[in-house]
UniProtKB/TrEMBL annotation:
Xref: InterPro entries: DNA_Rep/Repair_Clamp_Loader, P-loop_NTPase
Gene Ontology terms, MF aspect: DNA-directed DNA polymerase activity
Pfam families tied to this protein: DNA_pol3_delta2 (PF13177)
GO biological process: DNA-templated DNA replication
Entry keyword set: Nucleotidyltransferase, Transferase
Matching SUPFAM superfamilies: P-loop containing nucleoside triphosphate hydrolases
Name of this chain's protein: DNA polymerase III subunit delta
Species name: Humibacter ginsenosidimutans
């Protein structure tokens, strides 16, 4: 069934099967037709959390499965009285956070048919924490619906998986993402296609690349830097510059979000922007600031990972040229540079470079100093001048 543009499902793309399943569940009138625990899985950028909140809006709306504007606005602001959300900027969701959410799940809905509990990144729960959630899933209140999000079913305990209904998302096509970005963000079809392709169909990143000149410039510098690595000195300076780019990207994301959160917090506390915060309210703002500092730490790591993802796309393109597969290139604008790089090396070396990028991601996730991990990765990516018909200045 086609989705109306005013529907809560309108801004989701490339997931028609998943939308049909969740829309039918939201439209069910008999409680026996509704599953009370769901797991939405899919790769980064596929729209897991977007789909979860669209489903939540449909469940909470008095208008039915396509939702209504007021409920959608409350869900987007996380202010709906029958919606509870657990998301974290940390690596692990704490057991106390889950206990608090489980406790609130026992309340009856106040204005809607259901009380909806959303856990983003449910894969960040330890086994002990997951067992706290398990008890709530085993005996949920009649009108409580749990919606969990994770990259894959394998990221959760088997006991959790056995008590949820899984909806699997696929990576949307570049064309699907480009159509969404062009319609929603008002950019040209050409700009939307380039952003969707460079983002490798990651919806959130495609939005940033289509609407943020600085984000596009940082990505261009990243791939240009990697193509220019020749000497050991290039490796050291290149790693330092990649770290600076990641830091600038992370800062740009967190500063905008931090400002919005602070403005919203001041408004909810009844304090005008620029006004003096009463002493009795300062503790709440301090807590917000601490949360934002933790997010900044995580955001830097995410920024580095975005850079490494872009580099993987670069060497994937070089490999496709070397193997003459005819596959579409991600970085098609660099066609001539890619072909020159492909001729200066061979497929085995390119695969080794891609393995080094994956190793760098694992090392950084394991708390190895990012600069060291990036230097080791760029050593593998280094293309001696002699291989390119140039003088080696090591």
């Amino acid at each position: 069934m086609p989705v109306a543009q005013t529907s809560v499902w309108a801004d989701l793309t490339g997931q028609s099967d998943a939308i049909a399943t969740l829309r039918a569940a939201a439209a069910a009138t008999a409680s026996s037709a509704m599953t009370h625990a769901w797991l939405i899985t899919g790769p980064p950028g596929s729209g897991r959390s977007n789909l979860a909140y669209a489903f939540a809006a449909a469940l909470l709306s008095p208008a039915g499965a396509d939702g209504d504007e007021n409920t959608t606005r409350e869900v987007e602001a996380r202010t709906h009285p029958d919606l509870a959300v657990l998301s974290t900027e940390r690596v692990i969701i704490s057991i106390d956070e889950v206990r608090k959410l489980v406790s609130s799940s026992q309340f009856s809905p106040s204005v809607s048919r259901y009380r909806v509990m959303v856990i983003e990144d449910a894969d960040r729960m330890s086994e002990r924490t997951s067992n706290v959630l398990l008890k709530a899933l085993e005996e949920p209140p009649e009108r409580t619906v749990w919606i969990l999000c994770a990259p894959s079913e394998a990221d959760l305990l088997p006991t959790i998986r056995s008590r949820v209904r899984t909806v699997r998302l696929r990576v949307p096509s570049v064309a699907d993402v480009a159509e969404l970005i062009a319609r929603r963000d008002g950019v040209s079809a050409e700009e939307a296609e380039r952003a969707a392709r460079h983002a490798q169909s990651h919806i959130g990143m495609a939005h940033r690349l289509a609407t943020n000149d600085e984000a596009r410039a940082r990505r261009e510098e990243t791939v240009e830097l990697a193509l220019g690595i020749r000497t050991v000195a290039d490796v050291v300076s290149g790693a330092a510059r990649l770290l600076e780019i990641a830091g600038a990207d992370a800062k740009a994301i967190t500063e905008e979000r931090d400002a919005e959160e602070r403005a919203h917090a001041l408004q909810s506390l009844g304090v005008r922007e620029g006004g003096t915060v009463p002493p009795q309210l300062r503790a709440q703002l301090r807590q917000l600031e601490e949360d934002q500092k933790r997010r900044a730490t995580r955001s830097l790591r995410d920024g580095i990972d975005r850079i490494l993802t872009d580099l993987l796309s670069l060497y994937r393109d070089i490999l496709m040229v070397q193997l003459d597969t005819g596959a579409a290139l991600v970085n098609v604008e660099l066609d001539a540079r890619l072909r020159a790089a492909a001729q200066a090396s061979d497929a085995a070396r390119t695969l080794a470079t891609m393995d080094a990028i994956r190793t760098a991601r694992e090392r950084i996730e394991g708390n190895v100093a990012p600069a060291l991990a990036l230097e080791a990765m760029l050593v593998a990516a280094r293309r001696p001048r002699q291989a390119a018909g140039e003088r080696d200045d090591r």
